Amino acid sequence: MLLSYKQLQAFVTLAQSNTFAEAAEKIHLSQPALSSSIKKLEQQLGGELFSRTTRKVALSKEGAEFVPVAMRLIHDWDSSLADMRDLFAMQRGKLTLAAMPSFANSILPKIVKSFHQQWHGINLTIRDVVMEDVINLVRVGRAEIGFSFETEQLDGLVFKTLMTNEFIAVFAPQHPLAQRDTVSWHEIAQYHFVAMNRGSSIRLWIEQFTRQHDLRLNIVVEANQLSTVGEFVKTDMGVSVVPGICQQQFSQSGLACVAIEGVNLSRKIGMLKTHRKSLSVPAKAMWESILENHLGN
Question: What CATH class has 93-162+268-292?
């Protein structure tokens, strides 16, 4: 049984009127069309909703009980349509982003603030997780847009480059190289090294780079998080090399961040989305806004 919005509207209008003529005028229908609509509704429901006389129309007992039901259905219908219009007009909605912590605490706040100023009705959820998890969250649909380094694990994803990021050296404040403007990889290799664990992409990139340039790192500590790497460097257990996007975070924690001279390791940072489904209206607006604001190359 399918009840139409027009049928419900016609029924409620007639229930609030004295005659078919009065109700028909209110909803801009002819009397025959209104009468036909009410008859079809009664057939669908299985009984009479009105007691009809030559002068007046009155609700039957069942009709009186159906009035609040019909009004609630109309209200729900109108509210649902208004909600959908708001979603498409971006007056309300939700958007989940995933970002590696180094991006989340440096560049992402400016992006989110700019977006929120224009679309303040959109509730944003930020999942700041390691790069591998950013990729997985986007791939399985738990985040619509991710911000990460470009990796070899982007099957099924669209990656848009935002910047190319040079890696930097980090030292404890008291380290002999801490006051230098630049250092070389050969100088870095002379000291104990604090590394990311073997499962991380950053560790893989550093190992590939050092092999290509005949460098050997004396790794004394391994950690799962860049923030943990920084804490071990701070104790002067060793030096490390991290993506330049981490500079703000590491400098605020008291570490010396020094540019690396000569041939250096660099990686593209960008935003990614899945190939499999289109973005929601808020996600599409953010994606396009980032590109329009010339954050991309």
Answer: alpha beta
